[in-house]
Amino acid sequence: MEWFWLATASALFSAAAAVMQKKVLFSLPALEFSLILSLVITVISVWIPFAYPLSSLTLSSLALLILKSILGACAFLLVMIAIEQNELSSALPLLGATPAVTALIAFVLLHETLNGQELVGIGCIMVGTYIVEKRPHTPLFTTLRTSHTHGAIVGAILLFALSSVADRFLLVKTPTHPNVVLFIQHVVYTIVFGIVMLIRKTRLSLTTYSSVFFFILAVALFTFAYRTFQLEATQRAPIALVLAVKRTSIFYASFIGGTFFKEERLFQKLIGAACIIAGGFFILRHLS
Questions:
Q1: Could you give the dihedral angle defined by the CA atoms of residues 224, 34, 70 and 148, in that order, rounded to the nearest 10 degrees?
Q2: What is the pLDDT of residue 279?
Q3: In terms of C-beta density within 10 A (0-12 exposed, 13-18 middle, 19 or more buried), how is residue 26 classed?
Q4: How far is residue 234's CA from residue 224's CA, in Å, rounded to a whole number?
Q5: 249 touches 65 (CB < 8 A)
Q6: What is the separation of C-alpha 101 from the centre of its chain, rounded to a whole number of angstroms?
Q7: Are 191 and 197 in contact (CB under 8 A)?
Q8: Can you give the pTM of this predicted structure?
Q9: CB 171 within 8 A of CB 235
Q10: CA gap 25, 219 in Å, rounded
Q11: Burial tier of 95 (Cβ tally within 10 Å: 0-12, 13-18, 19+)
Q12: Which are the contacts of 174, defined by CB distance < 8 A and separation ≥ 6?
């Protein structure tokens, strides 16, 4: 059960990062924030190539790592856009569907098995997501259809799922250390966001940046921590199970962020988040 505690630590750090992200996104646009955050994390992790030689990577593993990092960068930017334009407790819950999508992709691509308990658990996750997103007197599909940012969340789910399957292949099928994956991933993130900034001819606001530097540094440290714990857990258990536990961050972030930012329908969202967590633990029962 070591992987479970690693995934739980990842969830706690992820929740802390999400609350801080929302705080910073009141001052910085999503793209600028994503670039600065990735750059800071890259600087923080610059020691990794000296401790873990990158020569251990094969050419094919490096190509896959770069590809999955590009997918992850696009997914991360989509999530930041959604958090920027929505309440934190409204933007995050749909990400709870990621384990279901990941499990199906891993089933097809990596031939990982899914038993009945896991399928029921995934169903609970979907029910919880429905509760979180349901608005009074408004059909759910109307809410999703009229939203300008739910498309970003759905896109992020698919991209995160594909990226997570690539993580599983890199960490289990090939001898790649998690820290090496983490370092190269953030280097690629920085390059991707930098290229997008250049294409859009966007300039960084140094005055605004300096005013939120403390929060950005905190997000960077929390992000580095939760991604490290998640990669370590992924080495020890199937992807869908790790993400099911890691997604308990939805509850923590919804409660803390919803309370701090005084968001609406918080009690309903917490019930939905709890249902998502229950679904995750239902998936885990056959391992205990």
A1: 120
A2: 76
A3: exposed
A4: 15
A5: no
A6: 14
A7: no
A8: 0.79
A9: yes
A10: 12
A11: buried
A12: 58, 61
Q: Which residues span the domain enclosing 115? A: 2-287
Model pLDDT, residue 115: 76
User: Which residue reads 């959604």 in tokens?
Assistant: 82
The structural domain count of the chain equals: 1
Average pLDDT per consecutive 10 residues, the chain (288 residues; last block may be shorter)? 88 94 91 93 90 78 85 90 84 72 69 76 81 70 57 80 69 70 90 93 73 90 89 78 79 91 89 81 58
Residues ≥6 apart with Cβ < 8 Å to 208: 27, 28
- How many other CB atoms sit within 10 Å of the CB of residue 129? 23
Quick one: pLDDT at residue 147?
56
Structure tokens given for 101: 């999508």
